[in-house]
Amino acid sequence: MNLKFIHKLERYGRSLLQFFLPQYCEICGKEDSSAEITSLCKDCLKENLEKYPNDDPEYCKICRTFLSGEKDCKYCESRNVFFETAYFLLRRKEIEKNLMNQLKLNNKKHCSVYFAMGLGPILLKIRALKPLGIVPVPSHKSSWTKRPYFATNCLLLRLARKLQIPILPILEKVSDQHQSTQNRKDRFFHAKEAFQLKKNARIINKPTLVLIDDVFTTGASSNEIARLLLQNGAGSVVVISTTRKTEGIEI
Ligand SMILES: [Zn+2]
Ligand SMILES: [Zn+2]
Predict the structure, then answer these.
(1) Is residue 235 situated within a structural domain?
(2) What pLDDT sits at residue 250?
(3) Is the pLDDT of residue 149 over 70?
């Protein structure tokens, strides 16, 4: 797949759309140059965009869970964590939940730009890990053909361009059941069964892979996919998720 071409096409498509249809802020409805690009006007962006505190020493260095003043991380202690480390772009609040729904359900693709914001501060850290490629978490059975638009599309393309590494769509979802409808225990068992490596995909020479997910709630999917990638030949897996919910989560 020619990334440069897709990126050009995407930019061209977006500017064409903006020419005919001015974009309004998804929160307050104001027409504004920032809303054309990020889906939120400058004021709403300023008020709502909250980058995730990945570097805060009060958060676990592996899973980035808030440590609540404790030395040990409850998340990492309570399970086998298969990813090397995880980074999050934004803290998931009500706004992020709504924008993600607009994107997924109403196909408002320009909202994807919002979910790539916050990539800057972690880019150097990811580059230092010398990853071989970027693996998107499929949201649907055979995503690339049936529903080619990922909520994380903008993030995927930006990351691939900045790091000059390929997107590797090597995973497929084998079950269509939705994670969000299940309780914690079910999510865990479902995640284990839900994904597999595509038939012709091979991972050789133990590379570091970047796994991109759109939401990290209990992290069951990301963790199980990391396990799957390791079992199939990856050397290490770094998770990047666009948002992480931090309140009201049962660890
Ligand atoms: Zn606004
Ligand atoms: Zn942890």
Answers:
(1) yes
(2) 67
(3) no
